Amino acid sequence: MIKKLALTLGVSCALSSANAEVDKSVDFIRDVKPVLEFNCVSCHQATKAKGKLRIDTYDEMMKGASGDAVIVSGKPEESTMYTTTVLGADDDDVMPPTKHHHVMSKFETDILKEWIKTGAKWPKGEKLVAQKRQLPEKIDFVKDIQPILELNCVSCHGPTKDKGDLRLDTLEAALKGGDTGPSIVVGKPLESSLYTLSILSEDHDDVMPPAKAMKKGQVVTFKEKALLRKWIEQGAAWPKGVKLKPKKRPSKNAAKVDLLPTELYKKLGFDKIAGKVQKTESYKNVIPGTPVEYNMVAIPGGTYVRGGSEADEQPKSEIKIDPFWIQKFEMSWDQYEIWQFDLDIARRKQDKYVPNKMDPIADVISRPTGPYLDMSFGMGKKNRPVISMTQLAAKCYAMWLSAKTGHFYRLPTEAEWEYACRAGSKTAYHFGDDDSKLGEYAWYYDNADEQYQERGKKKPNAWGLYDMHGNVSEWVLDSYKEDFYANSLKENPINLPPVGFANPPIESPWPTKLYGRIVRGGSWDDDPEDLRSANRIVSTTEWKIQDPQLPKSVWYHTDAIWVGFRLVRVAKVPPLSELHKYWPSDDEIKAIPKR
């Protein structure tokens, strides 16, 4: 009998035989998809297609790279998708590249080989999403596995309910199994229904948890599936006497949301100071009612030459910008989670903090529903940039911080962001054109070890701003049109440098669609050319593929784990008539589902 092959998912395989053969009926979802998503898709997808190659869909994969096929069906030895993965680790052409700090295991390359040999079958409509390989070296049952089972499985397979005559609240019960046999076969995840049923497609009749449970947010995430697999491979260690109890995912309830942006604007008195210019000086502030600080750098007014070498960065033109403040560092988790998880409200009782007159206003600003998984994706949170929020979430945070402090905060426009990034430079990067120096100033694909890093560890630009290139890409207010620069010049006729126009508006009509919005600066997962001061990156539907909610959340881009933001404060508060350009509109807030 042919032994089934277990993927390593980036770790050593625990099968008893090092000579295990591949199951001749390789299953795409079970066997091939994890190999491609863990090893290949991060560099070959819609938002990043190195070598002009995408493999996130079947059609894109079959197009190959620049017209050259990477798969010859039935012939793995003629398919570069396979042959490049079995090169030596020190070979310049090995895939994944050596700088990724991992190579595919023989088990993984054998799966690719057998898949191609048997016709490279790919289920119609299946799309792949890049996944991080990082998992604990040794799985801890209580920390890693118990929460998965208690949140997703034990409510239907426990002491009070045993659907299919299956219980999963003790190891003995799981090993015994139910109507379909053992749920866990020690050392063999591909023979363990606890794992194999969790990786079926969401519309499969046998997927676990079932589809109706997924609609309620009861979802086993990709990382959790990987943990289950590795745990079974390592022997399914289960501490003696530990019994599991069903648990519900925590709910993050906040005060009723009923304060609209136009109402907030008036309550904070911005209508009385609109149009008046405030003096800009750099400052450090503490978010009221918390110990958390943030730093704002005063940016002097002036001009710069907007644009670069790409078609959507043309034509170059001189732009005038009024003074403003911008955050010295990218928005951090500790700053963001105060709002996200209502920690400012919770602290009052804990720290015996007496609410000030601003707190009741801030309490009724729209806040996100709780995330269904760890949105840091295991990359850590201490002094690290927050990620994966939608532009709406970033705008709502700006409203909340405005309510907490009485200052008008918002996202920057594209023009403001590029001006701040350049800091007087006219080169590809704020430090010059030589990308060999990029590692001194930025975390990016070559040096970030496949994850974001602590803020402020690289050199700042000339205005003292950190991580403007790399680490995480940053939201700006604009939505994308390839010819916007050219058309804005037609709408605002000017002579090219040295005469320009002031504070170019974001695209009109203002962004109303979820996708096609812009982030700037490039990220830890990008190449040098994507980190240029002029580069424009556009949001797509791929940023939300893993979101299991129906409808999908307005707060999270589950797959944009490289997107963050920093706020600006303007020296001149805009009039109420222009508020919809900078904060969410009243209609957007009314449309947010209440939690």
The share of residues in helices is: 10-25%
CATH superfamily of the largest domain: paralog of FGE (formylglycine-generating enzyme)
CATH architecture tag of the largest domain: Alpha-Beta Complex
Please tally the helical runs, counting DSSP H or I stretches of 4 or more residues: 18
Identify the overall geometry. globular
Q: If you compute it from the alpha carbons, what radius of gyration comes out, rounded to the nearest whole angstrom?
A: 26 Å
- How many angstroms separate the termini? 53 Å
For the secondary structure, the number of strands is 14
Number of domains: 3
What is the CATH fold-level name of the largest domain?
A: paralog of FGE (formylglycine-generating enzyme)
Proportion of strand residues: 5-15%
Record the strand order, biggest sheet: 3-4-7-14-8
What is the C-level CATH assignment of the largest domain? Alpha Beta
Low-confidence stretches: 1-24, 251-256, 494-499
How is the main sheet built? 5 strands, antiparallel
| Content-based structural category | alpha+beta
Mean pLDDT: 85
